[in-house]
Amino acid sequence: MNFLYLAALLVSLTGMVMLDRRFTLFFWHDARRATVVLTTGVVFFLIWDLTGIDAGVFFRGEGQWMTGIQLAPELPLEEVFFLTLLCYMTMNVFVAVGRAVTKASSEEVK
What we know:
Blueprint: H1 4-23, H2 31-54, E1 70-72, E2 75-76, H3 77-109
Antiparallel strand pairs: 1-2
């Protein structure tokens, strides 16, 4: 049970990869740019988390579903995977919505 949350995050990330590949959204469109954007987003939010932890705003909740592995005080391993999923999903949605809007406006012109 200790790895349930991490497993759920990995399954969700796998789903994001499959959607990305199927619709050529983010990494399958431009892998180098996607790597830079995703890495920047994850690093930004990790710094945000560490700042919040240092200020006493964020803290790790106890749960039977978590691994218990800490990368830093109050920063569980699962947080990195969650932030990766959050940023990846955001970029997939951003590209998909952008395409839908572009398609709708080009059909409107016709």
